[in-house]
Amino acid sequence: MKRSVFFLCLFIVFSFLTAQAAETKKVIKADANKIQGVWSLKNMDVGVGENKRNRDDAQFMVYIAKKHYSAIRDFTPKAAPGETAPSANRSFMADAGTYEFTGDEIIVHHKIAAFPSLGTMTFKCYMEGDNLILEPQYDKMVMPGMQAIKPSADGKMGYGDMAVKYVFQRLE
Predict the structure, then answer these.
(1) Residues 155/138, Cβ–Cβ less than 8 Å
(2) Is the pTM of this model over 0.85?
(3) Span 84-93, average pLDDT
(4) Which partner from 27, 47, 102, 146 sits 20 to 30 angstroms from 158, CA to CA?
(5) Rounded to 10 degrees, what is the CA torsion of 150, 39, 104, 97?
(6) pLDDT tens digit string along 11-21?
(7) What does the angle CA 65 – CA 35 – CA 78 come to, to the nearest 5 degrees?
């Protein structure tokens, strides 16, 4: 009798946990659907410490489909009024590929890119109202043959100030 009660309790707990896991998957799937769309950069935080600042002059669009993404960005600072933008030293990048969404992170797998090495990049991913927030996780960056490329202590990357937070607004 005690054994039957034990197994009945065990069965109930197992059923409850299975239902909770299914519900959690539904929440993640709903969030995954929410991040799909066409997004344009509203502003971004760059640098660290004393060098930290917010930029709203960078151009960045990302298209997120069910399993694929495409991104194009130009981080070249805008020219001062009356000056022309430099064409030789533009900070332009583009990439496309697949992605995984875990519920709180998006891991992009570059399949084609304007930079010399393909790999993966992980971003903390969440919504604030109607804005999509991506925070690069440089410690999880995988670029074969380029493991030494990491942000410096003052928040610089090879192309300029490292981004620490992107705030996107939906375009559609």
Answers:
(1) no
(2) no
(3) 72
(4) 102
(5) -60
(6) 454 454 444 54
(7) 90
Tokens of 79: 């020219």
User: Tokens 């030494």, residue?
Assistant: 148
In this structure, what token pair is assigned to residue 72?
């194009």
What is the residue type of 27?
V
Both tokens assigned to 154 = 């003052």
Rounded distance, CA 147 to CA 150, Å? 7
Which two structure tokens, joined as six digits, stand for 133? 């927030």
Residue with tokens 């925070």, as numbered in its chain: 135
166 class by beta-carbon count within 10 Å (0-12 exposed, 13-18 middle, 19+ buried): buried
Res 25: pLDDT: 45
- Report the C-alpha gap between 119 and 79 in whole angstroms: 32
Residue keyed to tokens 């929440």: 27
